[in-house]
Amino acid sequence: xxxxxxxxxxxxxxxxxxxxxEVHGTGADLAAVAQxxxxxxxxxxxxxxxxxxxxxxxDTRGSIYWCPFSTLGLIAGATETISLATYVLVLGYHHPxxxxxxxxxxxxxxxxxxxxxxxVGSLVEEFALLNVPFDDRGARADDAMAALRASMGxxxxxxxxxxxxxxxxxxxxxxxxxxxxxxxxxSLRSLRRAIEFxxxxxxxxxxVTEAAALLADPRTVAAxxxxxxxxxxxxxxxxxxxxxxGDPDAVSRQLDAARDAGLSGFIPHFVHTSRAHFIEQxxxxxxxxxxxx
Length: 293
Hints:
The protein contains twelve helices and eleven strands. It is an alpha/beta fold and 293 residues long. It has a single domain (2-289), classed as TIM Barrel (Alpha-Beta Barrel), CATH 3.20.20. Helix 4 (68-78) runs parallel beside helix 5.
């Protein structure tokens, strides 16, 4: 069972309460967590994106979101081998070539470790703030994904779609031809988008049973059969915290359920009270996941 880690500090879900160490967390704290995860064998570190959140949603959405590119650039310098994922960039907030340049630069800085993780987005107020259409965001996301695929490995990318068109422009650094792509979401449509465009589907705020049901849908099974390589699935059950140190049996059962459902990876939310406790939980989960393939 592969393990990814959503970096602490950079986002602090209000449903889990405030941790003082995260509220006052620093780049040094992030680097220490990242290095511990790398030593423990985690495959990915993740940082999400929001530009601004409405005050009226603070109780449910939170308010703290560090810039993923600045954050992952810092982490690139503190680590050596672990992959660095933008989980997730909201496609509608960026021109595809802006994404290609930023992720390509992160990839160059990190020695080829950048992962392009994207999603469609759902915060209508943020779309309005950025003057981005909301109602057709799914169709726009599909066009952006096709445009990003067309730009991979191309110094002078060219694409013509319904919403995006470009050509005759140099993007360097840009995306490698084999850049790993993740699609995040919790719907059948997000899974379909991952099957068409990505290497990994990362369902969030779903449990194992819910994710497995989407994977077993006949339309999913048929679409997966058309792929030339397996689709990896990294589950991010962001609705609950786990306690590998305090309740290893419960966490072991959750990992076994994920493995038995055919999922390839797991991204936890930990119960934690300090940086040291977070690192302890990180190491304990890695020990439990060892051997679960």
